[in-house]
């Protein structure tokens, strides 16, 4: 009888999962970062004006990410989207799959950066299988986007040397990370080192999530935007104008306004 109960438990929980929190059966949702990067090949080698949609922190309120997708999909002037971390709340396999279901139906490519809530339990393994590298970069219309994992409690000391090298490697760069400058804890010296990089003429600005509110500031004259949580259909736009200047807009639903 005990053997029967154990066998039934294993069947119900799903064979092959190390725990019910892991649960990763999908063969579709793998290497999503590379798949979306492949869709960006239509970008030009030279700079041209373009716009990027910004979303952040769908943890717990993932239905609002779907609402943001509806608004972003209505527009014909968005080249791709960024999701700035905390895709999940507890790094559960099902949570990652819920977000992937929504990402799949964006009209334009969606690229992500990992958040602190995405590194709990089996999150490190799940994120890398489903999306890809924790630190990566890509170039679109001659602008390099540096997607940097700066979550110290979950992954240890952020790779600040990699960030600096990526900044030095291209004349136009934008930094995307979950935690904004000044908010990195455990290794607080990271904030001062990082903020020093904004003096580099290659840096155009940066975008972040984590704090769940709209916060606009400048560091060394460069714009830094923290995007509000997707709750109430909050999302943003990062615009590169004809002169290569970086302009931010905050949106709620279909209504958008320029910042600051």
UniProtKB/TrEMBL annotation:
Which residue positions does the secretion signal occupy?
A: none
Lineage of producing organism: Bacteria, Pseudomonadati, Bdellovibrionota, Oligoflexia, Oligoflexales
What domain of life is recorded for the organism? Bacteria
Pfam families on file = Metallophos (PF00149)
Residues covered by the Calcineurin-like phosphoesterase domain = 51-213
Natural source organism = Pseudobacteriovorax antillogorgiicola
**Molecular function terms, GO-annotated:** hydrolase activity
Name of this protein: Calcineurin-like phosphoesterase
């Amino acid at each position: 009888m005990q053997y029967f109960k154990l066998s039934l438990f294993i069947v119900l929980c799903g064979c092959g999962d190390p725990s019910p929190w892991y649960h990763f059966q999908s063969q579709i949702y793998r290497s999503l970062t590379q798949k979306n990067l492949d869709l960006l090949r239509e970008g030009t080698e030279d700079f041209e004006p373009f716009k990027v949609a910004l979303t952040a922190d769908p943890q717990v309120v993932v239905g609002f990410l779907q609402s943001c997708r509806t608004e972003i999909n209505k527009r014909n002037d968005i080249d791709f989207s960024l999701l700035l971390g905390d895709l999940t709340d507890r790094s559960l396999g099902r949570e990652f799959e819920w977000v992937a279901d929504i990402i799949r139906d964006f009209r334009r490519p969606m690229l992500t950066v990992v958040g602190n809530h995405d590194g709990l339990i089996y999150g490190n393994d799940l994120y890398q299988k489903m999306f890809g590298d924790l630190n990566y970069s890509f170039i679109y219309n001659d602008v390099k986007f540096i997607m940097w994992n700066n979550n110290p409690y979950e992954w240890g000391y952020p790779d600040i040397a990699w960030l600096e090298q990526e900044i030095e490697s291209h004349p136009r760069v934008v930094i995307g990370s979950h935690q904004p400058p000044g908010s990195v804890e455990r290794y607080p010296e990271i904030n001062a080192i990082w903020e020093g990089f904004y003096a580099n003429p290659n840096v155009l600005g940066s975008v972040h999530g984590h704090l769940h509110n709209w916060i606009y500031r400048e560091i060394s004259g460069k714009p830094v935007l923290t995007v509000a949580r997707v709750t109430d259909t909050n999302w943003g736009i990062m615009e590169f104008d004809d002169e290569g200047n970086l302009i931010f807009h905050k949106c709620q639903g279909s209504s958008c306004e320029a910042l600051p």
